[in-house]
Design goal:
By secondary structure, the protein is of the alpha+beta class. The chain has 19 helices and eleven strands. The protein is 54% helix and 13% strand. The strands form three sheets. A seven-stranded antiparallel beta sheet has the order 4-5-6-10-9-8-7. A two-stranded antiparallel ribbon has the order 1-2. Helix 6 (133-140) packs across helix 7, helix 11 (227-251) crosses helix 12 (253-261) and helix 15 (289-295) runs antiparallel to helix 19 (411-423).
Length: 461
């Protein structure tokens, strides 16, 4: 009996010992992430030499884990003074959030993951969450040295960029979803390229592949977030790295630095770098002056959603490739909300490359709204109507290359109001000159197409 018990005990120890040792090994890396000050200092100096920039202030003390802001503070930092229930209600109306979805509750987790490897400019310290090691492991696997260097490099690159370009100050005065996300893509993409280069991760094509692995791991960490917030979390790394690589291929790190001074104006430019670097296509500005006069009050919400986030409602109803193709023809949008609560009127104007693109979006978006909100639209080729409950209507109306969703207007007024809103819509070109002037032959091929483009004769202005 004693011998049998001893054998069982030995077998049990043999089965759990590898797990215990593995657990110790896995837990040691996060603990070391911020402890080895000599390794962090050596990596800092390497990044400073690599970028040809200097830190303007010392990084204070060892890295620390970020302290999440209270939900209301996190919401204000991201969306400005709009009350969380008002914006959440508007996003549910247009299909960016599911029924019952809320922006405020998950925003704390979203902010924590966004700062998983970052820099606090106020305190002057690096921010490294224990989870950040998973970003390095996604790329480097069992290579502990590289797995540690990648998240450290991300935080150090963010510190250098913030001190030199103060891009977060600009974020504080931008509350448009699209433009804010485009600027974040520049910061995240350049930090990823810097960290991977400092870790010795091959050439541009290799770094783009590694950026995809980092983004995929971050997406797994944010699996519980709503689709909207998960898209905002991953987009700057995955698409931002690809966008920034065009500037790097053309002018090296000086080209990357120039993006902070003259960032893209839309996520469409990030998704389609040729619209920024080769043949500039700035977003259209849609001003519903007629609707504003009819409503007789200031808008409670004034937003631009942009191509990247517009994909969210489309992908809920369509195959991914079809949703991306439709969204790629976006030219501009504006979301306005008048009033509060159940009687609020939501108007979302979207502009498209041509009438056929608008028609394709209207058909796909109608299907998305029917599935996400349980609406049932009927009507003719240009105007579709659905009962939204409480004596109010949802109207999808198309005029040329413009599509309008007017939701929440009283049934007796909705038709006239939507027609007037489209008739009096002002369509303006953003009044910005070309900001990144590169010779066309220099970027005739994207960096991931096989061979990196060579710089043209003309430089940055």
């Amino acid at each position: 009996m004693l011998r049998l018990a001893a054998l069982r005990l030995f077998a049990c120890l043999c089965s759990i010992l590898p797990l215990a040792l593995g657990g110790c090994s896995a837990s040691r890396a996060p603990a070391e992430l911020g402890r080895d000050e000599a390794a962090i200092a050596e990596l800092r100096d390497r990044i400073v030499r690599l970028r040809g920039l200097s830190l303007r202030r010392e990084i204070v003390g060892p890295p620390r884990a970020p302290i999440p802001a209270p939900p209301e503070r996190a919401f204000e930092q991201e969306y400005g003074p709009v009350p969380p229930p008002v914006l959440s209600h508007a996003y549910r109306r247009i299909g960016l959030l599911p029924r019952g979805g809320d922006l405020a509750r998950p925003l704390g987790d979203f902010e924590r993951l966004r700062k998983i490897a970052a820099y606090d400019p106020g305190a002057g310290v690096l921010l490294l969450s224990p989870e950040a090691i998973r970003l390095g492991q996604a790329v480097a696997g069992e290579d502990v040295r590289s797995a540690l260097a990648i998240p450290r490099g991300l935080a150090l690159a963010h510190a250098l960029q913030e001190q030199r370009f103060r891009w977060q100050d600009r974020l504080r005065v931008i509350f448009l979803e699209d433009r804010k996300l485009a600027l974040r893509a520049v910061a995240a993409g350049s930090a990823v390229l810097t960290a991977l280069a400092a870790a010795g991760r091959g050439e541009t094509a290799d770094r783009l592949r590694d950026a995809g692995l980092i983004a995929a791991e971050l997406e797994r960490l944010g699996a519980r977030l709503p689709d909207l917030l998960r898209a905002k979390l991953v987009f700057p790394i995955r698409e931002g790295t690809r966008f920034v690589s065009w500037a790097y291929a053309a002018r090296g790190w000086s080209g990357v630095d120039a993006l902070f001074e003259r960032p893209p104006l839309s996520t469409a430019q990030v998704l389609h770098p040729e619209r920024y670097f080769i043949r500039r296509q700035d977003p259209l500005r849609l001003v519903p002056s007629g609707l504003a006069r009819r409503m007789g009050q200031s808008a409670a919400v004034d937003q631009t959603i942009g191509e990247a986030l517009l994909r969210v409602p489309l992908r809920s109803a369509l195959p991914a490739a079809e949703a991306l193709e439709i969204a790629s023809r976006w030219r501009g949008d504006t979301l306005r909300v008048y009033g509060h609560g159940p009687e609020a009127v939501t108007a979302w104007f979207t502009a498209w490359s041509d009438a056929e693109a608008a028609r394709a979006f209207e058909r796909a978006y109608r299907r998305s709204l029917e599935e996400s909100r349980g609406l049932w639209f009927t009507g003719d080729a240009d105007t579709q109507r659905a009962a939204a409950g409480g004596g109010r209507s949802a109207i999808l109306r198309r005029k040329g290359a413009i599509v309008l969703l007017l939701d929440g207007a009283p049934e007796r007024e909705a038709d006239e109001l939507s027609a007037d809103a489209l008739r009096d819509l002002e369509i303006l070109q953003e009044p910005f000159p070309p900001e990144f002037d590169l010779a066309r032959p220099a970027l005739s091929r994207s960096p991931e197409a096989g061979s990196a483009p060579r710089p043209g004769r003309r430089g940055l202005r």
